[in-house]
Write a structure and sequence with these properties.
Elements lengths: L4 E3 H16 L1 H10 L5 H25 L4 H25 L5 H8 L3 H5 L4 H20 L1 E3 L3 H21 L4 H6 L1 H7 L3 H16 L11 E2 L5 E8 L26 E7 L5 H9 L11 H7 L3 E6 L11 E4 H7 L15 H6 L5 E7 L33 H27 L5 E8 L4 E2 L5 E2 L13 E8 L12 E2 L2 H9 L2 E2 L12
Helix pairs in contact: 1-3, 3-8, 4-7, 5-11, 10-11
Length: 506
C-alpha cells in the first residue's frame, strides 16, 4: 500500500510508471513489429525507448509541480482521462493520434461523437482515467524546496539529453518511424499534435485567395450536380466489380460511367477541400461553389454532414433548413437532400446551376443506422460501435447496405434530373475518402496519406449524363481535383484557371 504522504520525486516516478504500464502497449507493440526484437540492436532500441519514456514523463510531470500543487494535479487528472479515451480508440479502431486525427476530432460534432459512445469506452475511462485520478487527487504530496526541484530538474534534463545522444546510431530508425511513434506516445501524441494542428491552422490563409474572374460562354440551360460521398470506397461498389450487387439501380441506368479515383486525404475537411479546389495545395484558394457563385452561377448547397471548408453562397441548406422548407422524405436519412430539390431548381432564374449534395451515408462506426430498415439487404449486420467485436461478415454487410442506400439516392436524383427536359444535366458522385473495414486491424479512416492503406484512398467517381450533349474522355485514374475543371467545362465557364487536362468531358 502506498503511503498517504509521499515525496514529490517518488510521486512523479510512480505516476510515470503508471503512465508507462497503462498507456504504452500500442507504442511498444508497433516498436516490436517494426524491428527485430531478438537482435542486439533491437533489444538496445527497446530498452532505451523504455527508459526514455519513463524518464521523459517523470521529467515533465515533475516540471508541472513548479506550479501550485493543485494545478499540477489538475493537469495529471486531465492527462489520465484523455489518455484513457485515446487508448480506447487506438485499441478499438486502430487509429493513431497524429495532426490529421486531431483535425478530424476538432471538426466533429455532437451527433458524430456520440455515435462512438459504448460500454467499452466507459470501462476504459473508469479504470484508466477515473480511478487513477482519485489516487492523484487524494494522495498528499510532500513538496520540495525550489532549490531541490531545480537541481533534480537539471539532473533529469542532463540524463535525458545524454540518453538521446547516446542513441545517435538509432536516430535514423526513430526518424523513419517518427510519425507512428509520436502518434502512439501518451500523452505527447495529442499534446504535440494539437499544437501542430493549431500552428498549421494559424499559418493558413485567413481569407480565400481569389481566382481570376470567369465568364459564362453561352445561355444554354445546364445543371451540374456534385454529390460528395462520405467514407465510400470503390471496392464495395458493384459498378467496380464487387461480387455483391450493391448497385442494383445504377447498373440499369443508361449513361452511367464509373472511373477509378483516389482521394488526396483521409478525413472529411481536407477531402472536400480537394474536391472543390482547382489543384491540390495547402493554400486556401477560392473553392468551386464560391468561385461560381461570385461569377453569376446559381449555387445550391445541401448537407447532412459537417467538417466543410468555408462556403460563401446564398443558398446553403443543412438538414434542419430542408426540414423547415420542404415536406416529404425521411428526415433521419440522406434522402432528405432530394426533398424539394426539383422545385428549387425550377425556381432558379439562372441558366447555369451548380448543386452540391454533401451526404453522410457511409460514415462509421454506426453503419447500420445510416440507412432505412428496408435497405438492410445483407444480413447479419454489425450493431456495435466497437467494430472489432463484430464478425467480418457483419461489419461488411452493414457497410454494404449503406452503399445500397447510396445507390437508391443517386438513382432517385437521376430520375428527378431526367424530368428537367429543358436542362442539360450531369451528376458527379465523388467520395471525400475511403474506409477501412478491419483490414490489417484498421477501422474507418484518418491515417496519414503516407501510410494509409488503399481502402482509405480508393474512392468511387461516378458520372451520369442526361444525353449526348457531352462525351467522356478515357482516364485510367482520376483525382478529386478533376471535379473543379470538369464542372467548369460542363457549365461552359471560361476561366484563366481552367485546365483542359483535368477535364473529364470531351
Amino acid at each position: 500500500m502506498l503511503k498517504n504522504n509521499i515525496k514529490l520525486t517518488y510521486f512523479v516516478l510512480i505516476i510515470s510508471l503508471f503512465t508507462f504500464l497503462l498507456f504504452h502497449f500500442p507504442f511498444f507493440k508497433f516498436v516490436f513489429s517494426a524491428l527485430e526484437p531478438t537482435s542486439l540492436g533491437g533489444i538496445i532500441i527497446i530498452i532505451n525507448l523504455m527508459i526514455l519514456m519513463l524518464t521523459l514523463n517523470a521529467f515533465v510531470f515533475y516540471f508541472m509541480f513548479f506550479l501550485p500543487k493543485i494545478i499540477g494535479k489538475a493537469f495529471l487528472v486531465l492527462f489520465f482521462n484523455i489518455n484513457a479515451i485515446a487508448i480506447y480508440f487506438i485499441n478499438t479502431y486502430g487509429v493513431i493520434i497524429d495532426k490529421t486525427m486531431i483535425g478530424n476530432i476538432l471538426n466533429t460534432n455532437y451527433e458524430e461523437s456520440s455515435s462512438f459512445f459504448s460500454f467499452g469506452l466507459i470501462i476504459y475511462l473508469l479504470f484508466l482515467g477515473v480511478i487513477p485520478s482519485i489516487f492523484i487527487i487524494k494522495i498528499k504530496i510532500i513538496n520540495e524546496s525550489f532549490k531541490k526541484k531545480s537541481v533534480t530538474f537539471l539532473l533529469a534534463l542532463i540524463f535525458i539529453v545524454s540518453l538521446v545522444f547516446a542513441n545517435s546510431s538509432n536516430w535514423l530508425w526513430i526518424d523513419k518511424h517518427s510519425t507512428k511513434l509520436g502518434a502512439l506516445a501518451m500523452p505527447w501524441s495529442y499534446v504535440a499534435n494539437t499544437s501542430r494542428f493549431y500552428i498549421h491552422k494559424s499559418q493558413e490563409n485567413k481569407k480565400e485567395i481569389l481566382l481570376p474572374d470567369a465568364t459564362i460562354k453561352d445561355t444554354e440551360k445546364s445543371i451540374a450536380v456534385l454529390v460528395i460521398g462520405e467514407s465510400a470506397r470503390s471496392k464495395n461498389f458493384s459498378l467496380y466489380g464487387y461480387k455483391k450487387n450493391t448497385n442494383p439501380l445504377l447498373s440499369k441506368i443508361k449513361n452511367v460511367y464509373s472511373f477509378n479515383a483516389t482521394s488526396c486525404a483521409t478525413y472529411t475537411t481536407a477531402g472536400i477541400k480537394c474536391i472543390l479546389e482547382h489543384e491540390n495545395t495547402s493554400k486556401l484558394y477560392e473553392l468551386l461553389p464560391n468561385y461560381l457563385y461570385r461569377n453569376n452561377v446559381d449555387v445550391i448547397w445541401r448537407t447532412t454532414n459537417w467538417g466543410e471548408p468555408p462556403i460563401h453562397i446564398k443558398n446553403y441548406l443543412n438538414r434542419y433548413d430542408i426540414e423547415e422548407r420542404y415536406e416529404g422524405g425521411d428526415t433521419n436519412y440522406d434522402e432528405i437532400l432530394l426533398s424539394g430539390l426539383k422545385e428549387q431548381i425550377l425556381a432558379s432564374e439562372s441558366n447555369k446551376i451548380l448543386i452540391v449534395l454533401h451526404t453522410t451515408t457511409s460514415h462509421g462506426p454506426t453503419y447500420n443506422k445510416k440507412y432505412p430498415p428496408q435497405f438492410e439487404k445483407f444480413k447479419p449486420v454489425c450493431n456495435s460501435v466497437e467494430l472489432g467485436k463484430c464478425t467480418t461478415e457483419e461489419l461488411i454487410n452493414a457497410y454494404d447496405n449503406t452503399i445500397v442506400y447510396t445507390d437508391y439516392i443517386l438513382s432517385n436524383l437521376i430520375k428527378s434530373l431526367k424530368q428537367l427536359d429543358e436542362h442539360q444535366s450531369a451528376m458527379l458522385y465523388v467520395s471525400d475518402h475511403g474506409e477501412s473495414l478491419g483490414e490489417n486491424n484498421l477501422y474507418m479512416h484518418g491515417l496519414p496519406v503516407s501510410i494509409a492503406p488503399k481502402e482509405q484512398l480508393e474512392i468511387p467517381f461516378i458520372v451520369w449524363l442526361s444525353n449526348d450533349y457531352k462525351k467522356l474522355k478515357s482516364h485510367e485514374t482520376l483525382s478529386q481535383n478533376h471535379v473543379f475543371h470538369s464542372v467548369l467545362n460542363f457549365l461552359a465557364i471560361e476561366s484563366p484557371i481552367y485546365d483542359e487536362n483535368m477535364n473529364i468531358f470531351k
